[in-house]
Amino acid sequence: MVGTRSLEKKIMIKKLDKYSYGKYEQINNHGPRTYDVEGNRLPSVTTVLGETKDKSFLYKWQARVGKEEAERIKTTSATRGTSMHKYLENYVLGKGYEDMTEMGQLSKNMAQKVIDIGLAPVDGYYGSEVTLYYPGLYAGSTDLVGLHNGQESIIDFKQSNRPKRVDWIEDYFMQIAAYAMAHDYVHGSNIQQGVIMICTPDLYYQEFKIEGLQLRSWKHKFLKRLNQYFELKNDSKEKTNIDTTELLQEFEKGKIES
């Protein structure tokens, strides 16, 4: 049952009109996620990272808990994450939303924790659920672009079954870095930091921030993974006018702004 009650509003996030964002179709045809950007089908950031990561840990975990239990955990986590995101999106937009299911109420409490702690320093937002893209290379959707403690930031919300260690979330950092790079390229911005807000079902909140040289380092690491992805997908690489190897080299030499 879905109703119309909303999350407790302790803060009001102001909508800022500095940037204008387009709407682009997300395509999930029983394969890797892509985006249709002005007639070009671009791989999603999560697809790039998912197809180039070391999956040995995942395979070991599946073998330990069993295939059926692994699928149950992944499905439950994904459903909970989607619900939490829906609460947060509606909160940012000032809309009422309520899901009276057991999962919905748990997700609501998680979202409220993110609002109370994570969104308190957000002075205003430019866009919610924003599709960002780097022409000819990749695209993706970030949860929030806004001012966090006065700095232009890419903000992503994550749910987790347990607290995270920094070395477990390297792909999160690369995801944020990719969005920052795309935003700067297309919108002429200077995204100063990435903020990852995580909450567990038992309402343990964590926040990870990357900025300055650290943000630049994660951009560099993402470009390496992007180049690896196109090397794996030779057909796709032939269709783009951008040489990812050359782009990576220019970034390393400092020709590309951080």
Layout of helices and strands:
Layout: E1 2-3, E2 14-15, E3 25-27, E4 34-37, E5 40-43, H1 45-50, H2 56-65, H3 67-92, E6 98-99, H4 102-118, E7 122-134, E8 138-148, E9 151-159, H5 170-187, E10 193-199, E11 205-211, H6 212-232, H7 234-239, H8 244-252
Helix pairs in contact: 2-3, 3-4, 5-6, 6-8
Compact summary:
The chain has 258 residues and is an alpha+beta fold. It contains 8 helices and 11 strands.
Walkthrough of the structure:
This protein has 258 residues and is an alpha+beta fold. It has a single domain, classed as 3-Layer(aba) Sandwich (Trna Endonuclease, Chain: A, domain 1), CATH 3.40.1350.10. It is built from eight helices and eleven strands. The strands form three sheets. Strands 2-7-8-9-10-11 form a six-stranded mixed beta sheet, sandwiched between helices. Strands 3-4-5 form a three-stranded antiparallel beta sheet. α3 crosses α4, α5 packs across α6 and α6 runs antiparallel to α8 (244-252). The longest helix has 26 residues, at 67-92. The protein is globular, with a radius of gyration of 19 Å.
